[in-house]
Amino acid sequence: MSLQKLEPIGFVKSGGGNYPQEAPRQAVFARNSGVIELLPGHGYEQALEDLGGFERIWLIFLFDRNGGGWKPKVRPPDGSVHKRGVFATRSPHRPNPLGISAVELDRIEGRKLFIRNFDLLDGTPILDIKPYIPAADAFPNARAGWRDENDQTCRPVAFSPEAAADAAWIRAHGGPDLENTARVQLGTRRPDARRQRLTDLPDPDHHLLAFRTWRIEFQTTGDDAVQVIAITSGYTDEELIPDAPDPYRDKELHRNFRLSKTR
Question: Looking at residue 35, which CATH number applies to its domain?
Answer without folding.
Answer: 2.40.30.70
